[in-house]
Amino acid sequence: MKFTKMHGAGNDYVYVNGYVQSLDWPVISEKISDRHKGIGADGLIVAASSKIADLKMRMFNADGSEGEMCGNGIRCLVAFAMSEGLVDSNANVISVETGAGVLDVRPTFGNSGMNGAIVDMGEPILRPSVIPVDLTDESFPVVDYPLDVNGRKFLMTFVSMGNPHAVSFIEEDVSSFPLEDIGPVVENHKMFPNKVNFEVVNVVSETHLKVRVWERGSGITMACGTGACAVVVAAHMKGLVGDQVNIELPGGMLGINWSGKGSILMEGPVEEVYRGQWLPQEN
């Protein structure tokens, strides 16, 4: 299986051409994502044909589960598709079918080709039953909901960007926050029927947020595009930020633009790491 490894702000995935092959993607994702016995990645993204868009993205987490969307992954997918000749490399906009709907990606170019993109991430979903969050009260938005985790109380704001997010603003430096302990408990909490992505946030200023992410199905990641959008939505609803915000993640910066209504625009980088061929060993 030929592959290309790419990352967007450190959020790394293995990309394959699903136009020419159809394999057991969940099993493959789990094997190749292993950072000791596989290629090493946050998951697998397959470029596939679409009847309603220029391209279809299938995204699999490191544990083999299929996710709805990946904001960093969709940028890299378009660059991969261009390199494979699957879409027009001169197009100003590429439409991508995802589990969260059809999203438009506007490539940006440097001397060596596509180096980033602006993605129309769509509108945030705030109704609890659609996110989904198991709450008896369907009023929304749900801001600063108290949740006890491992003896600590966190104030959670719930947002879906096609996939579910629980966002908590904390005083403790996110760099030293025990995300490896708290993250999996939040992800698997009974109030999230489809599990959840968990973000912890420090407010640096009204234009700068510092964030770490525990991704559903993958664990701690260097960045998360949908998570960055969810964080800005939560911060905007709490009156902490303006319309343009820089999100500082361990893997780099993402720019988010949202006025408080309508679609969210996310801008971030694209980088190819290497290409190769995966030859699985028979057990």
User: What CATH first level of the largest domain would be assigned?
Assistant: Alpha Beta
Anisotropy-based shape: globular
Most strands sheet: 18 strands, mixed
* CATH topology type of the largest domain: Diaminopimelate Epimerase, Chain A, domain 1
Residues in β-strands, percent:
35-45%
Q: In total, how many domains does the architecture comprise?
A: 2
Q: Strand tally, please?
A: 18
Cα gyration radius (Å): 18 Å
Helix/strand order, N-terminal first: EEHEEEHEEEEEEHEEEHEEEE
| End-to-end distance | 17 Å
Helix/strand layout:
Elements: E1 2-8, E2 11-17, H1 25-33, E3 43-48, E4 55-61, E5 66-67, H2 71-83, E6 94-98, E7 101-110, E8 113-120, E9 145-149, E10 152-160, E11 164-169, H3 179-187, E12 197-205, E13 208-215, E14 219-221, H4 225-237, E15 244-249, E16 252-257, E17 265-269, E18 271-277
Parallel strand pairs: 2-3, 4-6, 11-12, 13-15
Antiparallel strand pairs: 1-2, 1-18, 3-4, 4-5, 6-7, 7-8, 8-17, 9-10, 10-11, 12-13, 13-14, 15-16, 16-17
In short:
The protein has 283 residues and is α+β, with helices and mostly antiparallel strands.
Question: Please, could you describe this protein's structure?
Answer:
This protein is α+β, with helices and mostly antiparallel strands. The chain folds into two domains: 2-122 and 269-277, Roll (Diaminopimelate Epimerase, Chain A, domain 1), CATH 3.10.310; 145-262, Diaminopimelate Epimerase, Chain A, domain 1, CATH 3.10.310. 16% of the residues lie in helices and 41% in strands. It is built from four helices and 18 strands. The protein has an 18-stranded mixed beta sheet that branches. Strand 2 (11-17), helix 1 and strand 3 (43-48) form a beta-alpha-beta unit. The protein is globular and about 50 Å long. The two termini are 17 Å apart. The model has no long low-confidence stretch (mean pLDDT 96).
